[in-house]
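tool=predict chain=A
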Amino acid sequence: MNTTDTASSSGPKAVSTVGEWTPEWDAMGDLIVRRSLRVQPGERVVYMADPYLYPRLLDAVREAVLDVGGIEQATILNWTPRLGRCRDEVGGNPDPEAASRERYAHLELLNTADVFIWLPNDFHRPSITSMESEWILGRWRGRGSHFHWHTFMDKTEDPAVITQLERIYQRAILDLDYAAMAERQRRLVNVIRGRTLRVMTPEGTDVSFVLPADGWYCCNDGDASRDKALRAVSARDREEELPCGGVRTIPADNRVNGVISFRKVPAWNGFGLDIDTFGAHLDLVFQDGRIVELTFFLDTETLFPLFGLPLQI
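tool=predict ok
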């Protein structure tokens, strides 16, 4: 058994390779730095990283940055389980004034840098201060890369499953035809721009919305170069996620109508309306871009209706 990248006894449990297969960390580090971010000599880099989680990836990225002449400005460390106990449920400082001071201190740090590289963290514990990076990106004019390589150990300990998932992630990063995908994204945007779209699902969702002809469209095509960042109109345009592929836009704010139905608790709840509060059976009714009715059920086994709640927002 050849198992590498295992955390030390003082850090969190994390195993990124199983059996005889090892992810191609050097190739992925090279892709992040040279192909995606295209770091230039003299550019200053700030990392967000967990030294216990995939240390060979961290080394590969650092080596690539140094090879191209980049400057390592600083590293923001993720919270270990021990340090996470000092934070709130989303990794923030429980003291609001201290949390604000931390945010502005990190913004000042990023203002001294050109590039931000967000390496894997454990989404299943508060290993980072959630949304702080989003807050910073909205105020900072540099560019960033968010590398997703989720930890699976608390979801399954089956080595075969973990290996299969990691092979999928690696193929999505290293084997993708980035130019072809970018062209498909551009064609998609041209098709949907200015159109009315209708989305229906077997679970009951039936919602229509208008995508403005002059609206914002973001193609997550893996290009985090300085040239692309200079054309950004949103923080989202200055941070690329890897693996990539998403196309983002915002519908006209008064042209959303219909119902969005949830029949299970979502894997990612996001921020704002905490829909977990309402359980696994929830309907959101939209009229002219506003939620006008919210209906949820007390028990998903019996589908006993608690009540339909008119909600003006």
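Confidence is low (pLDDT under 50) at residues 1-18, 300-313. Helices lie at 25-36, 55-67, 81-84, 96-110, 132-137, 159-174, 178-192, 226-230.
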